[in-house]
Specification:
By secondary structure, this protein is α+β, with helices and mostly antiparallel strands. The chain is built from 15 helices and 16 strands. It has an eight-stranded mixed sheet with strand order 1-5-6-11-10-9-7-8, sandwiched between helices. A five-stranded mixed sheet has the order 13-12-14-15-16, sandwiched between helices. The longest helix is centred in the first third of the chain and has 20 residues. It is elongated and about 95 Å long. Bound molecules: (6-bromopyridin-2-yl)methanol.
């Protein structure tokens, strides 16, 4: 017997019947583990969300780029113990090349910037929306792919870049119906940790690894963080210093700890001033426990969060001034963020704010007699060339069916091509919004 789709991992045999079923049962119709299908109704929601991403990026004057999902593995091999590299979806291809499905977009951006080199006019403001991958043991049943919207600014060393990026994130939240009562953006700087660690004599080369470990605090707890830091040779007293700095709740406290001239204090004070100017200061929360898990951040870091605290970070980003150098190029100041397509949808769903964009067409065109199909096709073509979306009924159908079909497609008009009207060069147009019907010359229809 044929296994119902998705019941198990049937092996597709040779096609033996016209229905496409095989002698070994149906293929498994489910997508690969950890991946998603996007049926039309899913694609309408995705297109809406990506349309909002692109509209915000365009409002900020950013240019879109893309790069292959498949990249050289070397782009992502970093020795800082990050989850994103531990879960790299990497393999050796048929040419014995070490490759990987990109887990993020930033290294590809860096590769393209290095490819352009000195010919790239700065500042460059680029955005991308791309599928990113991780290979996580399915024990946790989490997804292995998501789509990420990125905005990055290359060539601006001041926190004006971060302020602009935060403004874009706020604009996205507002456009999808969220307010600063629903979500916020935690802001800090890696320079906080850097200052504390240098006070405790931690060698700079341990900085990235310490950040990656400290970023896991919420997930693995203080004891495990202390143990992993100790494995790095970071003394318990340092750990106390780092963790107490992370529990500060104001820039004033930070200034007391690091001194008013510390770069972290100056950067963050300036950032909050700029936020005042943009008018989004109430969206920001200074939170020195925000470290972010990517090794390459060097300055301001931030992450979007739901104020009810039910979900994972909505988005995250920061400054990464040394990534180009890590790839062997000349450094340039860079800052950016990544915004995934999953948590935001979860949040909108929970908040009852998730749109359900309907499938609709402008016109349904129906020949009421087979001999009128050429006429109906001609009308459909002209309407389409004029920019209207037209569903041309492709089989012989009665008026009643055509009506129901037009309503199902949320059509604005139903165009009936009937014999008697056609003899006069006319067609019947039913305006389905105004419930009006008119007979008009076919050639006048637009
Ligand atoms: O946010 C980390 C990440 C990277 C790639 C794919 C997925 Br799902 N998640």
């Amino acid at each position: 017997t044929l296994k119902a789709a998705g019941e198990g991992r049937t092996v597709a045999g040779k096609i033996t019947e016209p229905t496409g079923k095989t002698d070994k049962g149906m293929i498994d119709t489910q997508p690969p583990r950890g991946t998603r299908d996007f049926f039309p109704e899913d694609m309408r929601l995705r297109n809406w969300l990506f349309g909002e991403f692109a509209a915000v990026s365009t409002a900020f004057g950013f240019e879109q780029f893309d790069a292959p999902v498949l990249e050289s593995e070397e782009l992502f091999v970093r020795k800082a113990g990050e989850e994103i590299t531990d879960q790299l979806y990497n393999f050796e291809d048929k040419g014995q090349r070490r490759v990987a499905l990109r887990p993020e977009l930033t290294p590809s951006l860096a590769r393209l910037v290095l490819q352009r080199g000195k010919t790239l006019p700065l500042p460059a403001k680029w955005f991308a929306i791309g599928q990113c991958w991780r290979y996580e043991r399915m024990t946790r049943g989490r997804r292995r792919e998501h789509y990420q919207w990125n905005m990055d600014i290359v060539g601006v060393s001041g926190v004006e870049a971060e302020a602009e990026l935060l403004a874009a994130v706020v604009m996205l939240f507002e456009r999808v119906g969220l307010s600063s009562r629903d979500v916020g953006i935690k802001v800090s700087s890696r320079k906080v940790l850097q200052s504390v660690m240098s006070q405790f004599g931690v060698p700079p080369e341990s900085f990235a690894k310490v950040c990656v470990i400290v970023d896991k605090l919420d997930k693995i707890g203080r004891v495990k963080v202390e143990s992993e830091l100790a494995d790095l040779g970071v003394a318990p007293s340092t750990i106390d210093g780092v963790l107490s700095a992370m529990s500060l709740t104001s820039l004033e406290q930070l200034a007391d700890l690091l001194g008013p001239n510390s770069e972290a204090v100056q950067d963050l004070t300036r950032l909050f001033q700029l936020a005042e100017g943009y008018g989004y200061k109430e969206w920001l929360v200074f939170d020195p426990s925000v470290v972010r898990g990517l090794a390459y951040y060097t300055g301001v870091v931030f992450e979007g969060f739901d104020r009810e605290g039910k979900l994972r970070a909505i988005c995250g980003g920061g400054r990464y001034d040394r990534l180009l150098g890590a790839f062997g190029g000349d450094n340039a100041p860079m800052a950016g963020f990544g915004f995934g397509d999953a948590v935001i949808v979860e949040l909108l769903k929970e908040s009852g704010k998730l749109p359900a964009p309907p499938h609709r067409v402008d016109d349904v065109v129906v020949p009421l007699d087979a001999s009128l199909r050429p006429a109906a096709s001609g009308i459909a073509s002209r309407l389409r060339r004029g920019g209207r979306s037209v569903d041309l009924v492709l089989e012989a159908k009665k008026m009643k069916w055509a009506f129901k079909h037009a309503e199902k497609l949320n059509a604005s008009r139903l165009v009936l091509v009937g014999a008697s009207e056609w003899e006069r060069g006319n067609v019947v147009v039913k305006d389905l919004a105004k419930f009006e019907q008119m007979e008009v010359p076919a050639d006048s229809l637009v």
